[in-house]
């Protein structure tokens, strides 16, 4: 009994630093009194368990002493107490209880009584065997208990992860992260607060009430691209990565066992966030396609609406010119009206054609033609327009025969000429050169005094794209280069921007296979046979 009283006396100071940590359910931790440090917390837990074990030994020892049980009988009872204590406590506490049982057995039941001396060597061997067996049993039971506990916790964690995954999969697709996406994390794992940062929208969403700076730490986890666990604040943060790309970050507050739980939860959150991004991209793609259809329809309608009044203006101007004798000034004005109306009609027709080509697949009506002659016609037609630029044609070959659609090819060259005139300085010269090399016909359209910024070079062939520096000072639809390139590709050619120094201007190169190319030889023979 003296050992029990001594143990109670020694344990009383540690009770001042008590911390009640109770788990009503897995992960629900109630913090009562803060512990100064983890070592003192551990010491208090061991002391509490040793105290309870000592009480049990005292009761069993008192009953055995009053019944005058032998050392063997009392040792068996003590061994039973130690084994039961091992099922509830850890190894350190159970080892101390085994030592106390050994001392009690020696002090109260071994001759001489009430003394730690052992007179009979046989009793000493019995006591030694008792403490060895008690420690072995304590160790085995403690290890088995920890494995069972670990297995139970892992099974519960797996079940909760499976339940969480099911709830996330049943969520309706949405455009952005919201509280409904985070609530399953908080509810299933009984977490105080969950916070998620989406890098695409720079939006941060929180579910639950945070007692610490959870949002700030979650945002910092993304920018630092670093996972962290703050055991003092009970906050864990993880970066969300999918296929090596960081999509955002997630933070948890008051989560049980973050070292094993935070990783799987972050993986589920990354999958959920990736699904939201994919849904948002798909919606944007559908919206873009619909807007392009509407835009093409509007351009088509506008072009049709323009053609009727333009035809009326041309007819009226021709009627005035033929009505009777006109003065020189009246003739000049009439010719100006006819010229500008014709030019506007050509622009409207081109806009209408490009709107149709934008919506439909380009299907060239192939026939035999000379590209040099076609380019001459385009240059001559543009020379008659009042563009304020000079046009020159450089022939690197006498003729360049090929099989192509003359209307489409003429439209493509006209669009390059139109762009070269619009984006060059007044009084400058636009040059068209034609040559043939290795079975490829190359048409180059160059201007001087203008250049394309590097930021626009990768996007100038995109539909409806216009340069950042010219979209507000030069009119256009953003379809010209896109349709011209589409025509070139339909003829198994290409349209590219050649690299030149900014001071030398801009050159576009349109290439198509010549009639001597290997790919067109059969088509040439078939076309000649058909005609």
CATH superfamily of the largest domain: Histidine kinase-like ATPase, C-terminal domain
Any idea what the radius of gyration is? 45 Å
Unreliably modeled segments: 1-36
- Principal-axes geometry comes out as rod-shaped
Structural class: alpha+beta
How confident is the prediction overall: mean pLDDT?
A: 77
**Assigned CATH class of the largest domain:** Alpha Beta
Q: In percent, how helical is the residue content?
A: 55-70%
Residue share in β-strands = 15-25%
**How many β-strand stretches?**
14
List the domain count as a whole number: 4
Q: Give the CATH topology of the largest domain.
A: Heat Shock Protein 90
Please trace the helix and strand order, writing H or E for each element. Answer: HEEHHHHHEEHEEEHHEHEEHEEHHEEH
Structure description:
It is a single chain. With 531 residues, this protein is of the alpha+beta class. It folds into four domains: 2-152, no CATH class; 172-285, Beta-Lactamase (2-Layer Sandwich), CATH 3.30.450; 288-355; 362-530, Histidine kinase-like ATPase, C-terminal domain (Heat Shock Protein 90, 2-Layer Sandwich), CATH 3.30.565. The chain is 57% helix and 15% strand. The chain is built from 14 helices and 14 strands. The protein has helices spanning 2-11, 38-66, 71-88, 91-109, 121-169, 179-188, 214-224, 258-323, 328-359, 371-383, 406-422, 454-457, 480-490, 518-530, and strands spanning 21-23, 29-31, 193-198, 203-208, 228-230, 235-242, 245-253, 367-370, 390-395, 401-404, 429-437, 440-447, 494-497, 506-513. Strands 4-3-7-6-5 form a five-stranded antiparallel β-sheet, sandwiched between helices. The protein has a five-stranded mixed β-sheet with strand order 9-11-12-14-13. A hairpin with a 2-residue loop joins strand 6 (235-242) and strand 7. Helix 8 packs antiparallel against helix 9. The longest helix is centred in the middle third of the chain and has 66 residues, at 258-323. Mean pLDDT is 77; it is low at 1-36.
């Amino acid at each position: 009994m003296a050992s029990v009283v001594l143990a109670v006396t020694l344990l009383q100071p540690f009770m001042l630093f008590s911390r009640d940590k109770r788990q009503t359910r897995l992960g629900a931790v109630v913090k009562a009194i803060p512990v100064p440090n983890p070592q003192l917390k551990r010491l208090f837990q061991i002391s509490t368990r040793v105290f309870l074990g000592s009480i049990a030994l005292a009761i069993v020892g008192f009953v055995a002493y009053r019944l005058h049980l032998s050392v063997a009988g009392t040792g068996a009872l003590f061994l039973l107490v130690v084994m039961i204590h091992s099922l509830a406590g850890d190894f350190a506490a159970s080892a101390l209880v085994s030592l106390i049982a050994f001392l009690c057995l020696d002090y109260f039941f071994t001759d001489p009584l009430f003394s730690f001396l052992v007179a009979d060597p046989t009793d000493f061997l019995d006591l030694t065997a008792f403490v060895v067996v008690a420690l072995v049993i304590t160790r085995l039971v403690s290890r088995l208990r920890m494995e069972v506990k670990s297995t139970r916790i892992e099974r519960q964690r797996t079940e909760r992860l499976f339940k969480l995954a099911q709830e996330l999969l049943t969520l309706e697709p949405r455009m952005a992260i919201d509280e409904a996406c985070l609530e399953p994390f908080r509810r299933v794992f009984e977490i105080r607060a969950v916070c998620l940062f989406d890098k695409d929208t720079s939006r941060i969403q929180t579910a639950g009430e945070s007692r610490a700076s959870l949002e700030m730490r979650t945002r910092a986890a993304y920018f630092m691209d670093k996972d962290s666990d703050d055991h003092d604040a009970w906050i864990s943060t993880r970066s969300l990565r999918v296929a090596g790309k960081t999509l955002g970050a997630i933070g948890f507050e008051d989560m049980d066992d973050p070292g094993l739980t935070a990783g799987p939860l972050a993986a589920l959150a990354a999958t959920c966030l990736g699904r939201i991004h994919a849904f948002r991209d798909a919606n944007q793609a559908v919206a873009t396609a619909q807007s392009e259809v509407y835009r093409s329809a509007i351009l088509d309608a506008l072009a049709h609406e323009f053609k009727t009044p333009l035809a009326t203006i041309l007819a009226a101007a021709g009627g005035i010119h033929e009505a009777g004798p006109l003065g020189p000034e009246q003739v000049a004005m009439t010719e100006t009206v006819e010229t500008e109306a014709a030019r506007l009609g050509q622009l409207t027709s081109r806009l209408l054609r490009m709107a149709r080509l934008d919506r439909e697949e380009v299907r060239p009506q192939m026939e035999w033609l000379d590209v040099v002659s076609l380019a001459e016609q385009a240059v001559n037609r543009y020379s008659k327009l009042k563009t304020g630029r000079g046009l020159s044609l450089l022939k690197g070959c006498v003729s360049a025969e090929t099989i192509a659609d003359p209307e489409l090819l003429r439209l493509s060259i006209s669009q390059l000429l139109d762009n070269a005139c619009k984006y060059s300085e007044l009084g400058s010269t636009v040059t068209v050169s034609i040559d043939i090399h290795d079975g490829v016909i190359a048409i180059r359209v160059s201007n001087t005094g203008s250049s394309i910024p590097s930021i626009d070079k990768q996007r100038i062939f995109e539909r409806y794209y216009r340069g950042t520096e010219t979209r507000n000072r030069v009119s256009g639809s953003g379809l010209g280069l896109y349709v011209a390139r589409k025509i070139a590709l339909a003829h198994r050619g290409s349209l590219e921007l050649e690299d030149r120094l900014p001071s030398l201007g801009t050159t576009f190169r349109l290439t198509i296979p010549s009639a001597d190319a290997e790919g067109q030889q059969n088509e040439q023979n078939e076309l000649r046979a058909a005609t």
